[in-house]
Amino acid sequence: MFLSMMTTSLLAFAVGGGLCVVAQLLIDKTALTPARILVLYVSFGVLLGAVGLFEPLVSLVGCGITVPLVGFGGNIARGVREAVLEQGLLGALSGGFTAAAVGCAAALLFGYLAALCFRGQPKRIS
Amino acid sequence: MRQRIRYLSSPPSFVSFAAVGGREEGQGPLGPCFDHLDPSDRFGQTSWERAEGEMGRIALNFALKKASLSPQQLSVLFAGDLQNQCVASSGGLYSFGIPYIGLYGACSTCTEGLLSLSVWLSEQADRQDVMGAAVTTSHNCAAERQFRQPIEYGGQRPPSAQWTATAAGAFILGSREGDVRITEVCPGKIVDGEISDATNMGAAMAPAAVDTLLTYMQQSGRAPSSFDAIVTGDLGAVGTSLLQEMLLEEGIDVRQNHLDCGNLLFDSERQDVHSGGSGCGCSASVLATHILPALMRAEMKDVLFLSTGALMSTSSVQQGEHIFGIAPLIRIQRF
Amino acid sequence: MKNEPYTSRIRRHTPPSPTKKNCLFAFLIGGGICFAGQWLLYLYEALGATRDDASTLVTVTLIFLSALLTGIGVYDRIARVAGAGTLVPVTGFANAVVSPAIDTKQEGFILGVGAKIFTVAGPVILYGVLCGAVYGVLYSVILWFV
Fold first, then answer.
1. Most C-beta atoms within 10 A of its C-beta, which of A23, B31, B136, C69?
2. Which of C129, C137, C145 is the best substitution to test chain A (most A C-beta atoms within 10 A)?
3. How confident is the model over B287-316, as pLDDT tens digits?
4. Average model confidence (pLDDT) for chain B?
């Protein structure tokens, strides 16, 4: 039990870290801006989900694929698929937001609370 | 050839000057020379934009106090900053009630202001004791918000990126005779280095500095070695090595006496500034804390000072337009 | 040399990014966040949550922690070292939402925070949902034929 948990979490470390390294290489070696890379990752996640690779990867590496933004895309794909199965073509519209709802709502809520509680700190270089 | 240098018939002199900075500027090598430093970078204000204006107000107040002057004695004020429509200058300086002319020259504003002010005063030299001021401010947080990302956003800056200084400089010049004077001015041309990368400003501005210096040396017939220092605004490490190489290829060697304010304001060993300081407050504060004191103490006698500006807006950069460079020049001499 | 194109001259004078160092920190910190997420998942499961709920709770927890670190001005300092390591995990998404929220407070809670909260993260949501919709349409068409 513990051994399989340890294996999965180490795989999560390796795959999650690996995804970050690929993004870092794209930032350093190409003219791609971070925003474009994130869009790329989310779209890639949707693609993984669409071709049916996302779920197997989740059971293999867990948070290694769900925590990076690829997971956001994968979730959207899953949400869309389930919604389409349930309500047909309309699901193409409702599924994405349903799947992204928790992440977006959490970020919005905590963002709003942070805006209430904190004020900006200047950047420091020394 | 079109004459670009203007020789001021009655050169105005520096009456007083002051510099204000934030925490990082205080930690830099020139920290002890600032008149006022605020380690919180807020200057008692509720927003970064207001802080930028307040810095200009504090700097001009110090300059007035040092020379025991009242605002009523100044007949004109040239000022600029990095914010849209120069609101920091109008908001920060309105309380002085001095006739005001707002400037925008990006990071070249300090020289632009001194150039305009010195020509203005030189024209009035027959009247005794006409005085005016030039004020320039920039604030790192206000600039980050306007040009780049939210301040708390986590991102990495490439090695060519520069650090907008939280600094202001105020200069009071008078038409009466004094020790340190602006004797010549040479406006900059808008130069297109065909750069659209907003994280490499030094490269965008270096061609403008090359153009101005080449023209100045050709038209004045002087050699770089006849000056104690040739001071550029904020080319940073990347822009400095570009400038020196391009000038050398034209047969002008400035390596011995070239200084860059972007390299002087911060300590690149201890401070993570990457290519160096930038922002219009950078050259203004270095002039007021380092160059002018050296001229006052007679450690320097003849200095060329050219702030370099990158002319762009957030929209122009996002639309992929080129970032133009400009580099106006003034010659400051001690008599 | 004199006729060298300016872009190649710039390349010669601009120091390269310290890619090896950046990648190492991106790997360690980005991987570390995923590792921590995985153990959080086990924790929530041990506390009785289903796998799906635990996974959602992990996302919410990481977003909360990121918002907190962003609020106290620490996230951007970590990010300066971590680079893509704090950009790619969902914490980076949270930082991209929270940072403009704090930043635009001065412009008010409706037109500042309200209108600008997605200025950085907006593209991710747009293209995520867009790709999802395209997939949904294709999937419906496939289902129709099968």
1. B136
2. C129
3. 999 999 999 999 999 999 999 999 999 999
4. 94
| C127 chain-A contacts, CB cut-off 8 A | 39, 42-43
CA gap B274, B293 in Å, rounded: 27
Amino acid at C143: L
**Within a domain: A39:** yes
How far apart (Å, rounded) are the C-alpha atoms in residues A85 and A88?
6
Residue A80 lies in a domain: yes
Q: Is A83 exposed, middle or buried (0-12, 13-18, 19+ CB in 10 A)?
A: buried
Q: Which residues contact C105 (CB under 8 A, 6 or more apart)?
A: A115, A119, A120, C112, C113
Asked if the Cβ–Cβ distance from B238 to C95 is below 8 Å, we say: no
Specify the pTM: 0.94
Decide if B41 touches A, using CB distance below 8 A.
yes
| Among B residues 171-230, those touching chain C with beta carbons less than 8 Å apart | 193-195, 200, 203, 207
The CA dihedral of B38, B40, B45, B47, to the nearest 10 degrees, is 130
Our count of domains for chain A comes to 1
Q: For helices C90-103 and C75-82, what crossing angle results, to 10°? A: 130
What the block records as the tokens of B94 is 């309105």
Rounded Cα distance, B291 and C92, in Å: 43
Q: Which fold has domain B6-174?
A: Peroxisomal Thiolase; Chain A, domain 1 (3.40.47)
Cβ atoms B171, B211 nearer than 8 A: no
User: Tens of pLDDT along C84-128?
Assistant: 999 999 999 999 999 999 999 999 999 999 999 999 999 999 999
pLDDT tens digit sequence for C25-35: 999 999 999 99
Band of residue B106 on the pLDDT scale cut at 50, 70, 90: very high
CB pair distance less than 8 Å for C73 and A84: no
Q: Kindly list the domain boundaries of chain B, sorted by start residue.
A: 6-174, 180-334
Q: Of B7, B12, B17, B9, which Cα lies nearest the Cα of B128?
A: B12
Residue A104 lies in a domain: yes
Closest Cβ opposite residue C103 in set B152, B155, B156: B152
Domain extent for A79 = 2-117
Is the domain spanning B180-334 CATH 3.40.50.1370? The answer is no
Interface confidence (ipTM) of the complex: 0.94
Q: Report H helices in chain B.
A: 23-27, 48-66, 87-93, 109-123, 140-147, 201-220, 236-249, 261-264, 280-286, 292-296, 314-318
